[in-house]
Write a structure and sequence with these properties.
By secondary structure, the chain is α/β, with parallel strands linked by helices. It has one domain: Alpha/Beta hydrolase fold, catalytic domain (Rossmann fold, 3-Layer(aba) Sandwich). Helix content is 45%, strand content 10%. It contains twelve helices and four strands, in the order ααβαβαααααααββαα. Strands 1-2-3-4 form a four-stranded parallel β-sheet, sandwiched between helices.
Length: 256
């Protein structure tokens, strides 16, 4: 699952390897993205609504538990889902998405991370971010993807596909509402320890999220393995697909 990258196409390099390994793979457009529903109002994107979507999606597939794989804001929803629906998480794989406690800590104490996160504060403004980003969906796609990647990962055709998803009516507004809801509607329940086996894959040269966000989580996620990928930017599953796929499959087969 993925929030900032606009829809399932983000995971195109992971689907076939997982299917070929025998896994049933469901790759949804999350609330507000591409062809999914785009409810109005910032409150519609509060974290409890997003995690409830995941729970109902698992049940709609006829299951009670699943392996959750997520990136960026989708990762934020996945961390919270693993706290609030612990019995529904078989294993958790998160990529370049900070645990909420680590993000709060770094935003409060680390000026370097505050500077990296400037856009999160800019997106809190009304109407202006929508106006700037919707002027040219292709330019926005270039900014979001090529602009934050270290390795070559997105072809011109890829960017056209991404721009098409961003151009869907209401998609950019909904994307920004994820950021706004995170600031305005903090979780109503306290954080819980995540006991599920967890793999955190982290690209070390992410322009927006520093490596310090991966530290100090031993008590909050005691069964976590962290795998760092050097010389790789924010879109780790696109920039280093072979390494990401290898780490995922090895983790899924561990003690299976």
């Amino acid at each position: 699952m993925d929030s900032v990258q606009p829809y399932w196409y983000s995971w195109r390099n992971q689907i076939a390897p997982l299917v070929n390994a025998g896994y049933r793979v469901v790759v949804p457009d999350q609330r507000g993205y591409n062809l999914s529903d785009k409810p109005s109002g910032i409150e519609s994107y509060r974290i409890e609504r997003l995690t409830a979507d995941i729970r109902e999606l698992i049940r709609a597939c006829g299951r009670e538990r699943a392996v959750i794989v997520a990136h960026d804001w989708g990762g934020a929803a996945a961390w919270r889902f693993a706290m609030d629906y612990a019995t529904a998480v078989e294993r958790l794989i998160v990529m370049n998405a900070p645990h909420p406690a680590a993000l709060a800590r770094e935003l409060n104490t680390n000026w370097t991370q505050r500077r990296k996160s400037w856009y999160m504060f800019f997106f809190q403004l009304p109407w202006l971010p929508e106006a700037l980003l919707s002027f040219s969906p292709l330019a926005s796609a270039q900014l979001f993807f090529r602009g934050t990647a270290v390795r070559s990962a997105f072809s011109d055709d890829d960017l056209q596909v991404m721009a098409s998803a961003l151009a869907q009516r209401g998609a950019l507004r909904s994307m920004l509402h994820w950021y706004r809801a995170a600031f305005r509607y903090p979780p109503s329940r306290p954080s819980q320890v995540i006991q599920s086996p967890t793999l955190l894959i982290w690209a070390e040269d992410d322009v927006a999220l520093g490596k310090s966000l991966t530290l100090g989580l031993e008590k909050r996620v005691p069964n976590m393995t962290v795998h760092y990928i050097p010389h790789c930017g924010h879109w780790v599953q696109n920039e280093a697909p072979d390494e990401v796929n290898g780490q995922m499959l090895a983790f899924l087969k561990r003690d299976a």
